[in-house]
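Lab notebook: predicted structure, single chain.

Context: the supervisor wants predicted structures on file for every construct in the current expression panel, including those that have not yet been purified. This is the next one on the list. No modifications to the sequence; it matches the entry in the shared construct table.
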Amino acid sequence: MVSFFRTLTVFALSLAMSVCGPTPPAPGAAGADASHAATGSGREAASQITVFLEGEKETVPATLYETVMPLHDSVRENANSSFSLYIPNEGWQKEPDSNRWVSTVNPKVFFEVWIAEGGTPMIFQEFFLVKNPGFSSPGLEERDWSYFTDKATGTEALARMLYDGECGCAIWGQYPAEAVEGFGALVKAIAETLETGTLPALPEQGTIALSGGELPGRLYTGNGYTLYIPSEGWSETVRPENNEVIWTMEEQKLATLSVRVWPGLGRVSEDALFAAVQAAEPDAALERTDHPVFRQVNDSRCLTIYYYQYGDTAYTVRQDYPNEAEIGYGSVVWGVAQTFRMSAKP
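Prediction complete. Output recorded below exactly as produced.
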């Protein structure tokens, strides 16, 4: 079972975090990013979570969080899956570039969401035991739920696992054993709000969010991916030797964004993918980062290459611009990169 999950590359699908580009607003204390509120699932943006805390019924105001891209430390293969859940308005902080929320009252309490193609409840059950050594579990209970105990640390956890026949989604919540009737009950109530869905079709005309505004964009559909390109001021070329699509800003020819599809590199190691990308960039001295990003930053240039492994295929989204243009042209290139989305297996 370990080998199954090792074949799914653990990576951050986080175009919300740019190594060289502008930094997006941080989420609020509740961890509910306003940009995710009621944007496709059809659920209400605001609601209440009902929970029995130490025997007393309470209602907790909450805000919808939904995403089409599981972020840092999330297993992902199915590009057509999304999830949503309600986060209490107070007392929780979303960790950057992740699907993990931590209690601001007790940092030992947290929950996180995972997605994996073929992730049945049984597979997730075994995966969580491998990922969290020290925990034991009696097995699946209540159909979609499992409960875990680490007696050595006095910690308990729960997992709710959803499976639609193709893609699985699971939430793991962890808390001290003595808090099972408090935080444990609240984490379970939050987990009960978890739902999965399918990405809505994207409109042909959309907007590209920038750090200081937005631009109108047109939808570009590539081989297994989509993104929005500014409606005006960009030229497009294709390299026939590798089908890399390159967009160049007409006002600043050194500001470019490109997408390349790498058949056969979806399940290779990061070392192998890095070697392939570096070989394609002979003039750059790329470095790895803690994110799924290869980069080169020097006195004149900011080169950032996001990479994604999906099925048997890898994708790279390359943004390149002069350092002195970061605030202006670099911001636009960064904004376009944020719209990249895998759409279907190529």
